[in-house]
Design goal:
Chain lengths: ~120, ~270
């Protein structure tokens, strides 16, 4: 899956995948134990050396919780306590633009609180 | 409900008997009336008097009416035939009642069901047996030797069953990867129980000899319900049927029963 997450639905083309917010929400796959994302800094910049790509793979365990007859189940995630994520720069020769990734909460059971902080 | 049903069927039976009344003989005194001349001595009325006396004499012979008491056993055709056209369902229900008094019947149903419930996001299979015990009150006053029943009754129901979660879908309001496919689970929950109260409204009509055909509608109120776990609930309970929010359920059966007469009781005519 190469299509990005739409942060700006009113825009068209590439720019709908861009955001300047200090907080983003991203989904995790409910049917696998890992989800891989590429986070691109300065995406679309005219100077290609300023564009930095980090690939982060989140490792977690899922737990399915019964909601109701109509909704079915929901999935709660627990980030792997030993290895919650793996981070690589693309290409690997470049420095990682995310200098520090901090797992604030490893139990992900709602969408209202911050689970991971990224410093760069 | 009881009175409406009773009234409804009373009208039905009344209509079917109207033509019988039409054949009733009318005392043939019209010719006498016709030949009656004003001022004649009252000899003719005497004749009429004796005639009417004779008629009343024959009327006073009241045939002894006897009610038959016994056991009625049968099967629910609805559950039995549903297995033929619904591949997700297999079930059988045996029904029986025993006449206690003129209007009261002890009644019971015992059955077994195996049903796969297909919801939009859940697929589960329930297997189990159930027993319902209670009584029926026959609100219908039969004419002559008719033995039809329009009843209202109560049952206490109890069921033991197991439930297996076959597959489910995960709820996702923001489907970035599209709708997730069904997840297979196969998790099985054994030793589940439930009990409930049923209000039954039913009709039974004698079709030939001792064979009765009837149907009943049931409203169920769940009393106890042992849930499989915190992570699942009983979506279907054998005998109780589909569970809804608020412990409410409905049922239906269509029965063919055979009446086994055991003894007869003379019906005492009501004093007027």
């Amino acid at each position: 899956m190469t299509e990005g997450i739409v942060f700006n639905s009113s825009a068209t083309g590439e720019s709908q995948y861009l955001t300047n917010d200090n907080t983003i929400s991203i989904p995790l796959k409910t049917d696998t134990d890992t989800t891989k994302y590429r986070f691109i800094l300065n995406s679309g910049n005219s100077n290609p050396t300023l564009i930095d790509i980090d690939e982060v793979t989140f490792n977690y365990a899922t737990k399915d919780i019964f909601v109701s007859r109509a909704c079915g189940f929901k999935t709660l995630f627990t980030l792997d306590p030993l290895n919650p994520y793996t981070q690589t720069a693309i290409p690997a020769t470049k420095l990682k633009w995310m200098q520090y990734i901090s797992v604030e909460k490893s139990n992900i059971d709602n969408e209202n609180e911050t689970h991971i902080k990224v410093f760069f | 409900m009881k009175h409406t049903l009773k009234y409804f069927f009373s009208i039905g039976f009344l209509m079917s008997l109207l033509f019988v009344q039409a054949q009733d003989t009318i005392p043939n005194n019209t010719s006498l009336e016709r030949t009656k001349i004003v001022g004649e001595i009252p000899e003719v009325p005497k004749q009429v008097k004796t005639k009417t006396a004779a008629v009343t004499k024959t009327d006073t012979i009241v045939p002894v009416k006897k009610d038959r008491y016994g056991v009625r056993v049968g099967v629910d055709l609805y559950k039995l035939t549903r297995g033929l056209y619904d591949e997700n369902y297999k079930g059988i229900e045996l029904v029986g009642d025993y006449r206690l008094t003129k209007n009261y019947y002890a009644a019971a149903e015992i059955g077994s069901e195996n049903k796969t419930t297909e919801d939009d996001r859940l697929n589960s299979t329930t297997k189990g047996t159930y027993l319902k015990v209670g009584f029926d009150y026959n609100a219908y006053e039969n004419w002559l030797d008719m033995e039809n029943i329009i009843s209202i009754g109560l049952r206490g129901g109890f069921s033991t069953f197991s439930q297996e979660l076959n597959s489910f879908k995960t709820y996702n309001p923001y489907p970035y990867w599209g709708e997730m496919p069904w997840k297979t689970s196969g998790e099985k929950f054994n030793g589940l129980t439930a009990s409930w109260i049923e209000v039954v409204a039913g009709v039974k009509v004698k079709v030939i000899n001792n064979i009765f055909v009837g149907f009943s509608l049931r409203m169920n109120m769940l009393i106890t319900d042992k849930k499989p776990s915190d992570n699942f609930e009983n979506l279907y309970i054998p005998g109780f049927n589909r569970t809804y929010a608020g412990n409410f359920g409905v049922g239906f059966n269509y029965t063919v029963t055979y009446f086994v007469p055991l003894y007869k009781k003379i019906v005492k005519p009501k004093k007027e």
